[in-house]
Amino acid sequence: MQVVLLTIILIDNAIPDSKRSLLFQLTLGLFARTLGTTKFQITQKLAIMPLQTLLILLPKPQSGIALQVRHFSVTTMQ
Fold first, then answer.
1. Phi first, then psi: what are they for 66, rounded to 5°?
2. Splitting the chain (78 residues) into consecutive groups of 10 residues, what average pLDDT does each group show?
3. To pair with 30 at 20 to 30 A between CA atoms, which of 2, 46, 57, 66?
4. Whole-angstrom Cα distance, residue 23 to residue 14?
């Protein structure tokens, strides 16, 4: 959403009026947004890595063992 708003400001104000300061501010805003998004994604991946390692190290169930499934019946009272 922010990129769309910045693009609208760029096309409506910065380019037609040759406002270099506004163009510079928009560029800094997009750059800051990119850095923030990248930092969040790196942090998210680092937080998930221990869980992925744990899942890899857990023993896998044997192929001959069947999972037990319970069936529940629902009765209605009239």
1. -95, 145
2. 82 83 88 94 92 79 58 60
3. 46
4. 6
